[in-house]
Specification:
Layout lengths: L4 H21 L3 E7 L3 H19 L4 E7 L1 H9 L6 E3 L3 H11 L11 H4 L2 E10 L9 H4 L6 E2 L7 H16 L4 H13 L8 H10 L5 E5 L2 H9 L3 E4 L3 E7 L1 E3 L1 H7 L2 H9 L4 H9 L3 E2 L2 H6 L8 E3 L1 H5 L2 H9 L4 H10 L1
Parallel strand pairs: 1-2, 1-3, 5-6, 8-11
Antiparallel strand pairs: 3-9, 4-6, 4-7, 4-8, 4-10
Helix pairs in contact: 2-13, 3-4, 7-8, 8-17
Length: about 325
């Protein structure tokens, strides 16, 4: 028997009401803008946090991710991309949210422990199986006949850490600043292509088979081995830079959207045992001594230094080395002569 127009209308109204009720019950959506090589970590972390939030706050929360070269990502937020949180691998990229757009307070790094850096990593050297070029330390990347893949320090935190790792290792080994600069110059003279971010550099090395070595974060190594096979070996140099991974809520965005409570909880949970466990499983070094001890076999001991120790902090390092006309540009220009 055909339905009357009135019953059809009632069903349509009921469906609309049910859809509206479902939308009303849906929880907030957060956007985490992050750097290039954290996709897999945050995919897993988001699921763990969402479950925790549902159990403790009785609210569903959806977390979306955006990834790319760290500096490009930070500029996108400063220019209007509405990130609830930004999770970077250097403080300098977060500082610009204050300097360019006043989206966060100047003292944002004081809001959470360890200068708002819940995790760390180190820069390591990935070589082809058997290490045919016998690469053992940063100096070997500057030898004639060695080709090394490094992302562009102008666009990538990974690239900047590589530059500072090689320079700082020279200083820790007792060489002069001029000798450290010369080493960095030789290394970058051996770079055949400067990719925009760490993941693109990985593709160049592992998939396109370009280069004898790739400098990347320690956390990338298991992903590379899992995706591209076991035809690579990791080299831990005698000294390397400690990459600290800072995070912050983007105040003007969360206050506009009404998501401050969820965004702050999302970042605080990174410091919890559960959050630190997710980081450790992704070979990102946890700050928690307990969790680090549990996963000690995954994190070989290596001599590290910080950007503050050798370079006077990220602001000074950026100004001296990476701003237009800085030492990195001078090195690149000299290599082209």
């Amino acid at each position: 028997m055909p339905c009357s127009p009135f019953s059809t209308l009632r069903r349509a109204l009921l469906a609309s009401l049910l859809a509206a009720a479902g939308a009303a019950q849906a929880g907030p959506t957060l956007l985490n803008v992050s750097y290039d090589v954290t996709r897999e970590f945050y995919k897993d972390y988001n699921a763990v946090f969402a479950k925790h939030w549902k159990e403790t706050a009785k609210e569903d929360v959806t977390i979306n991710q955006s990834h790319g070269g760290s500096s490009k990502q930070a500029r996108s937020v400063a220019e209007g991309l509405e990130a609830d949180v930004i999770t970077m691998n250097q403080a300098n990229d977060i500082d610009i949210l204050f300097e360019r757009a006043k989206l966060i307070p100047q003292d944002w790094a004081r809001r959470l422990p360890n200068n708002s850096s819940p995790t760390t990593s180190v820069s390591v050297i990935l070589v082809r199986k058997g290490n045919p070029k016998q690469i053992r330390d940063w100096t070997d990347l500057g030898r004639a006949g060695v080709s090394v893949i490094i992302p562009n320090p102008k666009t990538s935190g990974n690239g900047r850490y590589t530059y500072l790792a090689a320079w700082g290792a020279g200083i820790k080994n007792g060489v002069s600043p001029d000798a450290a600069r010369a080493l960095v110059g030789r290394i970058f003279a051996n770079v055949p292509v400067l990719d925009g971010g760490g993941r693109a550099a990985t593709t160049t090395f592992a998939q396109r088979n370009i280069g004898d070595a790739l400098v990347t974060f320690e956390s990338e190594v298991p992903l590379i081995l899992g995706e591209f096979g076991k035809d690579f070996e990791v080299v831990y140099p005698k000294w390397t830079v400690l990459a600290e991974n800072p995070v912050t809520v983007v105040d003007k965005v969360v206050d506009k959207k009404g998501t401050r409570k969820q965004a702050e909880a999302y970042l605080n949970f990174l410091y919890s045992d559960a959050g630190q466990e997710v980081a450790a499983r992704h070979h990102i070094r946890p700050r928690s001594a307990k969790v680090l001890a549990k996963y000690a076999k995954d994190f070989p001991k290596v001599g590290t230094f910080t950007v503050d120790e050798i370079f006077g902090g990220w602001k000074k390092a950026q100004k001296d080395h990476f701003d237009d006309g800085g030492l990195y540009d001078q090195i690149v220009s000299a290599n082209k002569r």
